[in-house]
Automatic annotation (TrEMBL):
Keywords: Calcium, Hydrolase, Metal-binding, Protease, Serine protease, Signal, Zymogen. Transmembrane segments: none annotated. The active site is at residues 285, 289, 554. The keyword Metal-binding applies. One of its GO terms (biological process) is proteolysis. It comes from the Bacteria. Residues 210-635 form the Peptidase S53 domain. GO terms for molecular function: metal ion binding; serine-type endopeptidase activity; tripeptidyl-peptidase activity. This is Subtilase family protein. Coiled coil: none annotated. It comes from Luteibacter rhizovicinus. Residues 1-27 form the signal peptide.
Length: 636
């Protein structure tokens, strides 16, 4: 697969596109980015060097074998050392990289056990010389950061060994996939902890907008596992995140809803100087990840790998978590539009190497039996909208990364049935669980308050990757789509100032390939609509710690993570990469009596409609967890 990627990217005839840092700045109405000149060459930075996998096609085949019942390799997952021996770079490659770093004065080096990544610490001056790129200091709206002034150049001698050197920029890059209903439609104020009680003293509230993990257990048939003594005991949940948090928030949440959990279960691992705690950094995101995953598997241990919100931090956290190989499952609720990675003359380089770097670590995780989950985003079928808006820039059909990678389970979103009334309007109802897209609210509010609200395109992320081809497990699934025609990213407001351009007319930044047979996402979905959303405890987000009306696919990824811990305990071993197993079961069982997935036939994510079978709104559908557990335990 990897061998064909560059050929695919070139064949796509993509025109220039701004890199995500600059684009996101315009979307947030921030001021211009001011180049302050060369960064301090003596400043210490951490850089993650990702090395190339060996025998990639054999590795992909091995992953499929480990999750195919009846195959001799079924359930035979590799240790990190076994992975390094079979698929990692050679000792010669490692020595070559080590000599290169030493030659440039970079002596503080750690080779991860997988041999796929080297964490190196040195100065900006040393790395700037090594990779032939000046690093400049910049300022935007009073915030200072540094980044290369052009794309780093990999030495020719290392071109067959090194995928990417990430970490020379500390500019925030990724978006938390979390949405609050209060941001759009005014709800009642969040209750104080002392006055909020769960229904009948249970862990569930039965209240839309204040749902808990107890409600999730009711919705998706998890309770039979709890009744059988399955609670995550003996398993470890991993969280990869880009903000620190206060563990007490999670303990307070579980205590508030009356949930008994294993004490002292949270361990924080700070990667590359991670651990910043603030609302602005996204600490509430980390809190909800831990609360949801750990709440569904109350006796699982929890490892939280937090890193700075940079490309180097994100990659570093994944490579550390997977190479440690302690977590049985890992989720992530951060990402950015997949199209932000494509080659751009404006930034002087091809950032698709980052997608390849993510892909490698997801393959390693799958080979080691670690189940991985990623949120698909909250911009419906138009993933750039949360990053860019839709007034200054067009909104092409796009998907989110890393959820678009074929070796991670993409977590989409639904809306549960509920009755609502907003802005003085009449009552209305959602009658059945449907694909989450706030166009149902837009239609309602347009009648009640015409022209006041603009909810486009809030909803569960989903669509077709234009980078990753359709994976094997989707080739026989009815409903898999190709990319649509006539999709372009256009700077359509002449007043927007773009680096290197004097713009007087709309400027096409990127033309997406039409009819590309790409990986479809999501894979499975659970409730994510903030209007039928959740209670969150986050002392960084609210004075009393309690936030209601929370939602987004940020909730679904950690919920699947907690569910995976239950499946692991129930099976007596790691369950590995979910996707081939779930798709095979659905293809074989359909949506019948024994199927572990329930079809979502209503709603839409602003483009893809809920319908019979797979759709890029809700994927295969929602889970019946107990049925899935039973099938996995007995090897189907």
């Amino acid at each position: 697969m990897l061998a064909n990627l560059r050929r695919h990217v070139l064949a796509a005839s993509l025109s220039a596109v701004l890199f995500s840092f600059s684009l996101a700045a315009y979307a947030r109405d921030e001021g211009p980015t001011i180049d302050l000149g060369s960064a301090d060459p003596n400043q210490t930075v951490n850089v993650t060097l990702v090395l190339k996998l060996q025998h990639t096609e054999s590795l992909e085949q091995y992953v499929y074998q480990t999750v195919t019942p009846g195959n001799p390799q079924y359930g035979h997952f590799l240790s990190t050392s076994q992975f390094a021996s079979r698929f990692g770079p050679s000792d010669r490659d490692l020595a070559q990289i080590g000599a290169f770093l030493q030659k440039n004065g970079i002596a503080e080096v750690e080779v991860l056990p997988s041999h796929l990544a080297i964490r190196a610490t040195g100065t900006i001056g040393q790395f700037s010389t090594a990779f032939q790129t000046p690093v400049h200091e910049y300022e935007r709206d009073g915030h200072r950061f540094h980044r290369p002034s052009h794309h780093p150049e990999l030495p020719v001698a290392l071109s067959n060994t090194l995928v990417i050197a990430a970490g020379l920029s500390n500019e925030p890059k990724y978006i938390s996939h979390r949405v609050n209903s209060n941001k759009v439609v005014a709800l009642t104020a969040a209750p104080a902890i002392a006055t909020l009680t769960t229904a009948s003293g249970s862990t569930a509230t039965n209240t839309p907008g204040e749902y808990t993990v107890g409600d999730v257990a009711n919705f998706y048939n998890i309770n039979p596992l709890y009744q059988a003594g399955i609670n995550g005991k003996g398993t470890t949940i991993g969280i990869v995140t880009l903000a620190g948090f206060l563990p007490q928030d999670a303990y307070d949440y579980w205590s508030l809803i009356g949930l008994t959990t294993k004490p002292g279960r949270i361990t924080q691992v700070h990667v590359d100087g991670g651990g910043v705690i603030s609302s602005a950094a996204g600490s509430g995101e980390t809190s909800l990840d831990v609360e949801q995953s750990g709440g569904l598997a109350p006796f699982a241990d929890i490892l939280v790998y937090d890193a700075p919100n940079t490309s180097g931090g994100f990659l570093g956290a994944f490579y550390k978590a997977v190479s440690d190989n302690v977590a049985d499952s890992i989720s992530v609720s951060w990402g950015q539009p997949e199209i932000f990675y494509f080659d751009s003359p404006l930034t002087g380089g091809d950032y698709t190497s980052e997608l390849v770097a993510f892909h490698q670590v997801f393959l390693e995780a799958a080979a080691q039996g670690i189940s991985m989950f990623a949120a698909t985003g909250d911009s419906g079928a138009y993933d750039t909208v949360r990053a860019l808006g839709h007034t200054d820039f067009s909104a092409p059909l796009t998907v989110d990364a890393p959820a678009s990678d074929p070796f991670i389970t993409a977590a989409g979103g639904t809306t549960l049935p509920f009755t609502f009334s907003f802005a003085g309007g009449p009552k209305a109802s959602i009658a059945t669980e449907q694909v989450w897209g706030w166009d149902y609210l837009q239609t309602y509010l347009d009648k009640v308050r015409p022209g006041v609200y603009d909810l486009f395109a809030t909803g569960g992320g989903g669509g077709v990757s234009i980078f990753w081809p359709t994976p094997f497990y989707q080739r026989f699934t009815h409903g898999i789509r190709q990319s649509e025609a006539n999709q372009s990213l256009v700077a359509q407001n002449p007043s927007v100032s773009l680096p290197g351009y004097t713009q007087t007319t709309p400027l096409t930044l990127l033309t997406l390939p039409a009819h590309y047979s790409g990986r479809n996402l999501p894979d499975v979905s659970l409730n994510a609509d903030p209007e039928t959303g959740y209670l969150l405890i986050s002392s960084t987000d609210a004075e009393n710690g309690v936030v209601t009306g929370e939602g987004g696919t940020s909730f679904v990824a950690p919920q699947l993570n907690g569910i995976s811990a239950l499946l692991t305990q129930n099976a007596g071993h790691r369950v590995g990469f979910w996707n081939p197993q779930v798709y095979l079961l659905q293809d074989f069982l359909g949506y019948g009596k024994y199927s572990p997935v329930s079809d979502i036939k209503a709603g839409d994510n602003w483009f893809y409609q809920g319908k019979n079978g797979y759709d890029p709104g809700a994927g295969l559908g929602t889970l019946d967890v107990s049925k899935y557990a039973r099938l996995l335990k007995f090897g189907f």
